[in-house]
Specification:
It is a single chain. The protein has 116 residues and is of the alpha/beta class. It contains two helices and eight strands; from the N terminus they run E-H-E-E-E-E-H-E-E-E.
Amino acid sequence: MSRTVYALARYHDCQAALDFLITAFGFRVHEVAKNDEGAVNHAELIVGDDILMIGQGEPGGPGIYVAADDVDAHHDRARAAGARITMDLVDQPYGSREYGCADPEGNAWYFGTYRP
């Protein structure tokens, strides 16, 4: 099955975002594009079996939810890498264990065990 929808987060500094997302969340690089000045302006990251895109622009907007197998360990890794925790680990009534955080540019990220 080919994908139709891809999550996208915008950043002022895509290289710094790329470094943070790899270190804090364990994402892997799929592809990186640079502008004429050599600065990263687009990247695709592998998250499990999915692709997340980042690009230059104004941070913010809707949050991004990513399913994680060991959300407690993921939380600890993100906090250690400098993620600002915006929602502490919580067991939701619908069966998910999850937390929320913000990356250095303020994008909202949510990680949990729920897989729709």
